[in-house]
Design a protein that fits this description.
- The chain is of the alpha/beta class and 414 residues long.
- The protein folds into 4 domains: 8-23 and 180-330, MoaB/Mog-like domain (Molybdenum Cofactor Biosythetic Enzyme, Chain A); 26-47 and 144-178, Molybdopterin biosynthesis moea protein, domain 2, CATH 3.90.105; 52-140, Molybdopterin biosynthesis moeA protein, domain 3 (Beta Complex); 340-412, Beta-clip (Beta Barrel), CATH 2.40.340.10.
- 16% of the residues lie in helices and 31% in strands.
- It has helices at residues 8-16, 161-169, 207-219, 233-243, 263-269, 312-330, and strands at 24-28, 41-42, 52-53, 57-60, 74-82, 96-100, 112-115, 119-123, 126-129, 139-140, 151-153, 174-178, 182-188, 192-193, 204-205, 222-229, 248-252, 273-277, 281-282, 288-293, 302-308, 340-345, 356-366, 369-374, 391-395, 407-412.
- Strand 23 (356-366) and strand 24 form a beta hairpin.
- Helix 1 (8-16) runs parallel beside helix 6, helix 3 packs parallel to helix 6 and helix 4 crosses helix 5.
- The model has no long low-confidence stretch (mean pLDDT 93).
């Protein structure tokens, strides 16, 4: 398959059919944000576990309030108090009320709660009620949120704040989560320097390492190694050999055919198998994907290797299209969770058939759906074009120019 450009969807297929989940591990809830659940979670209890008050007020028998009006309020004896965590010790008998706080258990005998706003409050051991209440008013029933035995979360769910709250509510102190793939990020080039260093003549700052590391962690991977690799065969091979102890290796730059592009021959000497090199894609044409033999410490029998272009936008786009779905699939999550849809493109865009173009674009919602407009200059070196990008507009390989008003496919980024 070497040297032949393949389409985006074929490249994604070739990646995903070589990916499998990595297993699972228990994770404390306070450390589980962003992790992917590896089991279905059911509740052993009703949530809430008892009927409780939705309001501050008075627990009553609704039939006792039927004659109440503002002019002729019904007066009930206050015989006890129920607070959250402190149930009342009395039951409600005819013409009695129990003061109750939000969340407190509804006392036996009561079938409704009168809001404190519909009373004169407690005076001399009595409460004056100005309006009738229906049975069940202002009561949250046991199991109203979650019923005993109900499945509340499914395997493959990414845990956000709400999911973690639900896990806590059903009594889980830990979540069984997919193990995160370890990822190495190598950026190649003698010209690279770290942020904060004074640039020497001809040097550039190493933005790819930081952008890719952030993309890895956002996708759910575990960043295990980052290195700048000099433009020699020896340095490249040594760095790759170290990186192959991880589950995934990302190499930015050095995957073309120039005199100083050493990634492909170094991988070959390390026993890597090339699956594809070259995608009918702009930006991102010289993307490489392969499998390398196991190194000590790796969780897989073979390491996934992604050779990403050196230009910063190309590197981010190629990661989004190919490496991110692989990480999500290894976590047992939906690799296509960033859904594709369509949008009306609001600009003319010149294109020759031959390669798919991915246009960074901003989205606005209108009555007829999404409308897309490019973020500006689309050069693969213009990293700021990613700042406001909500989506990538996908113009297929076989298509030519796009006219303002055409509907195009988009892949959501946010």
């Amino acid at each position: 398959m070497a040297g032949k450009l393949i389409e985006i969807e074929e490249a994604r297929r070739l990646v995903l059919e070589r990916v499998a989940p990595l297993g699972h591990e228990p994770v404390a809830l306070r450390e589980a944000l962003g992790r992917v659940l590896a089991e279905d979670v059911t509740s052993a209890d009703n949530i809430p576990g008892f009927d409780n008050s939705a309001m501050d007020g008075y627990a009553v028998r609704s039939r006792d309030t039927e004659p109440a009006t503002p002019e002729r309020p019904t007066r009930l004896d206050i015989v006890d108090e129920a607070r959250a965590g402190h149930p009342a010790s009395h039951m409600v008998a005819p013409m009695e009320a129990i003061a109750i706080s939000t969340g407190a258990p509804v006392p036996e005998g009561a079938d409704a709660v009168v809001r404190v706003e519909d009373t004169d409050g407690a005076r001399e051991g009595k409460v004056a009620i100005h309006a009738p209440v229906a049975p069940g008013a202002n009561i949250r029933r046991a199991g109203e949120d979650i019923e005993r035995g109900e499945t509340v979360l499914r395997s493959g769910t990414t845990l956000g704040p709400a999911e973690i709250g639900v896990l806590a509510s059903v009594g889980r102190a830990r979540a069984v989560c997919a193990r995160r793939p370890s990822v190495a990020v190598l950026t190649t080039g003698d010209e690279l320097q770290e942020p904060g260093e004074t640039l020497r003549p001809g040097a550039i700052r190493n933005s790819n390492s930081y952008a890719l590391a952030a993309l890895v962690e956002e996708a759910g991977g575990e960043l295990a190694l980052t290195e700048i690799v000099g433009d020699t065969r020896e340095e490249t091979e040594a760095a790759l050999d170290r990186a192959l102890s991880c589950d995934i290796t990302l190499v930015s730059g050095g995957v073309s055919v120039g005199e100083h592009d050493h990634v492909k021959p170094a991988l070959a000497s390390l026993g890597a198998e090339e699956i594809f090199w070259g995608v009918a894609l702009r930006p991102g044409k010289p993307t490489f994907f392969g499998l390398a033999p196991h190194r000590p410490g790796a969780g897989l029998t073979r390491n996934l290797v992604f050779g990403l272009p050196g230009n910063p936008v190309s590197s981010m786009v190629a990661f989004t299209l190919f490496a991110r779905p692989a990480i999500r699939a290894m976590l047992g999550a939906d690799p296509d969770e960033r859904r594709r849809t369509t949008a009306v493109f609001e600009e003319d865009y010149a294109k020759q058939p031959g390669r798919a173009h991915l246009i960074r674009c901003k989205l606005e919602l209108a009555e007829d759906g999404w409308h897309a407009r490019s973020t500006g200059a689309q050069g693969s070196h213009v990293l700021t074009s990613m700042l406001d990008a909500d989506a990538l507009a996908i113009i297929p390989s076989e298509q030519g120019d796009v006219s303002a008003g055409d509907r195009v496919e988009i892949e959501l980024l946010r």
